[in-house]
Amino acid sequence: MENKKKIVVHSNDIAYAEFDEFEMREMKLLLSLIATVTDDKPYFYDAKEMKRIVGMESQAYSKFAKLITNLQKQVLKINLEDDKYKTYNIFSVLSFDPKNKTIEIEYNSKFIPFILNFNKNFSKYYLENVEGLNNKYAIILYLRARANIFKYQFKLSVEEIQKKYGNNYKASDIDKRILVPALTEINKFTDINITVEKEYLASGRGRSKVVGYVFKISKKKKDLEENIYKAMNIANKNRFILNSKTINKESINLLLQEYSEEELVVGLKYAYKKINANFKTLTYLKKVINSGLEEKENKKNDIDLVEDEEIVSADLVEVMKDRVVADDEQTSDIVEYTSEEEERLVNYILENDGITYDFLQNMKCKSKSVYINTLRAAENRMKER
DNA sequence: GCCCTTCCATTGTCGCGCGA
DNA sequence: TCGCGCGACAATGGAAGGGC
């Protein structure tokens, strides 16, 4: 078994779907399976490993087979406007071979777009966050929080909770049965913290009624993994990267929302080697990281371009071959845009740079100068066209 | 690995007191 | 008067341990 952390990636539609018919272990199993999907093809799994993941190690295979059968019957229910919804069968094949202790899976072609080949509105997180949860509502709220991680909050009305998740619990029971146990687990076992505030409807007489909840999300402050820290230091030994001031703890945390740790290490090392001209934007750095990941994917071997001890001085980069020329050489002085100008530039970036609105907004919050430089780079490119 | 039994946590429901 | 917050109680289902 490989030690690499499994990453779950899926469309945000899944985070907003209804899971009222799912049992907790069915949800865990589904997310575990999604974490391994890279292509639209049949998959075979070791049933013992899957039993372990859903916490059925000591259970009979007959019970596990029942879980498989139940999961096969589940559908993904996507809510549309005006109380309309669509349901999707998840699997075209989901079978358990009791003799060989294997599971065979093929995904329904209509379900594939929810787990493959999307370029916006998706969630990405380590499977281990979900594996630690043992409460169905904790998993549901974690998925919803992950889909809204860039907004730092999301809202659910009492009506929505009752309809979607809560078996028509009244407000006090929503607290007791859903929110308290779920948030306790999320805050204890996952990479995020969630606090909840109630929204009241003022009434003429009597006590005000709870009509909804605002969930505030924060990422746990964790020390950067040692290998990322090393990669940061390596990258910043390239003087062009250092001058850009685009790599620091804040920007790394931002990038970790889009890349896994392993990807970021590869990307930063690649950036160290390749960048040999001035730049100012995180967007540009992302392009280089993406190039590094693409190159790695194409070559199918690890990019282990530099070792710490190889780095003598920042000037080393000047002798690097295979240059990538920076597409922006703006100064970092802050300019203010009108909201119309900003919107126009943001739209241009969204259309041309392959980054998400949420990412931009997060950048704006965390690093104003990098954000402004990104807008300026887009403005210059627009002028050149 | 599987089955059976026991224990315990979770879930569903209801009632009561209190505060606005 | 209304509705939240809390607790009590019964039913249900899952986890754990032991025996085969």
SSE arrangement, N to C: EHHEHHEEEEEHHEHHEEHHHHHHHH
Q: State the shape.
A: globular
Q: How many strand elements?
A: 10
Average pLDDT over all residues? 74
Strand percentage lies at 15-25%
Q: What gap, in angstroms, lies between the N and C termini? A: 51 Å
Helical content stands at: 40-55%
User: Treating each run of at least 4 consecutive H or I residues as one helix, how many helices?
Assistant: 16
The class by helix and strand makeup works out as: alpha+beta
Give Rg in angstroms.
24 Å
Unreliable runs? 300-334
Largest sheet: 3 strands, antiparallel
Strand order of the largest sheet: 2-6-5
Our count of domains comes out at: 3
InterPro entries: Initiator_Rep_WH1, WH-like_DNA-bd_sf, WH_DNA-bd_sf
Family: Belongs to the initiator RepB protein family.
Domain Initiator Rep protein WH1: 7-142
GO molecular function, one term: DNA-directed DNA polymerase activity
What does this structure look like?
With 385 residues, the chain is α+β, with helices and mostly antiparallel strands. It has three domains: 1-127, Winged helix-like DNA-binding domain superfamily/Winged helix DNA-binding domain (Arc Repressor Mutant, subunit A, Orthogonal Bundle); 132-222, Arc Repressor Mutant, subunit A (Orthogonal Bundle), CATH 1.10.10; 226-384, no CATH class. It has helices spanning 12-16, 24-34, 47-53, 61-73, 127-131, 136-147, 158-165, 171-189, 226-235, 239-244, 249-255, 261-274, 282-299, 339-352, 357-366, 368-384, and strands at residues 7-11, 43-46, 75-79, 85-89, 91-97, 102-107, 122-126, 153-157, 192-201, 209-219. A hairpin with a 7-residue loop joins strand 9 (192-201) and strand 10. The longest helix is centred in the middle third of the chain and has 19 residues, at 171-189. The N and C termini lie far apart (51 Å). The model is unreliable at 300-334 (pLDDT under 50). One of its GO terms (molecular function) is DNA-directed DNA polymerase activity.
